[in-house]
Amino acid sequence: MDKYIVFGNPIAQSKSPQIHSMFAQQTAQVISYARQLATIENFKPSLDELFADPSAKGCNVTAPFKEQAAQWVDELSTGAQLAGAVNTIIRQANGKFLGDTTDGPGIVQDLLRLKAVNQGARILLLGAGGAARGALQSLLALQPSLLLVANRTESKAQQLASLIPQNNLQACGFSDLVAQTEPFDLIINSTSASLSGELPPIADNVIASCGFVYDMSYSDKPTVFLSHAKQLGVTRFSDGLGMLVGQAAESFYLWRGVRPEVEPVIAALRAEL
Ligand code: ATR
Q1: Which ranges of the chain would DSSP assign to H, the alpha helix?
Q2: Average pLDDT in the 132-138 region?
C-alpha cells in the first residue's frame, strides 16, 4: 500500500489524514496517510527514514518545517523556489524527490470555487509572511490588474513584491491604504492576526467597499476579520477552510494523478468544526 505522512510540530490538530482518507475513498485509491510529530533536529533524518521505505510515495510538511523540507529535496518546483518553502514532497519515477508548494494553487482553487475573483481584479493581500509568499505567484497567475501587498512592517511587503518584478504587483504599509480611492474586488487576509483574535488596522472604508473578503484562517465561528467585514456591510466573504482542502487536493493530485472533489470534504469538515 502506498504510504504518505504529514510532518509538523504540533501535528495532533492536523486535518490532513482525515482529508486524504476522504479523497482516497472518493477516488477509490488505496493509500495510508498518517501524521508524525518531528523536531527541528530530527526532521531531515525522519524524511530519510520515511523514504528508505519504497512504499513511501510522498509526504506533506507543515509548520515549522517547510523551509527545511525545501533544503532536503533534490528538485524544487518554480512555486516552491519562489516561496522558499515546500509543503509537498513527491517521489518521482526517476527516484528523485520533488518539493512543491500547493498552498498557492489551494487558495486560487478556493477563490475560483467561490467566484470571488475574475481576471483583471484589484486584489489587496494583507500580510507579507510565509502565507503571503506562498500565495503570491498563484495570485498573479489570475492576472489581476493590481495585486497590492500591504503589511504592518512595510519593508517586508516591499521585499516580497520585489521577488516578482512586474507592474501589477505593488507594496505598501497599512496606513498608505487610505490613498487607494478605487475599491478592491478582493481582500485576502494572510496575516496571523486572526489567530490571536486581532484585527489588522485597515481603514474601514477599504474593507466596506470591497467585493469579497477572504481570510486564510478558519474556525468554528467567523474570524475576527470576517466578523468585522460583515459589520461594515460586506456580504460576500469566506474563511480559509476551502484553502486547506484545496491545497490537500492539489497534493493528492500531484501524488495520485486524480483530482478529488473538494465540496463534500469541505462540508464534512465544516460540520465538525
Ligand atoms: P505566516 O507563515 O502565517 O505568514 P509569518 O511568516 O510569521 O506567519 O507572518 C505573519 C504575518 O502576519 C506578517 O505579515 C505579520 O506582520 P509583520 O511582518 O509586520 O510582523 C502579520 N501580523 C501578525 N500579527 C499581526 C497583527 N496583529 N496585525 C497586523 N499584522 C500582523
Answers
A1: 16-27, 43-52, 66-72, 78-83, 103-113, 130-140, 154-161, 204-208, 224-231, 241-256, 263-272
A2: 95
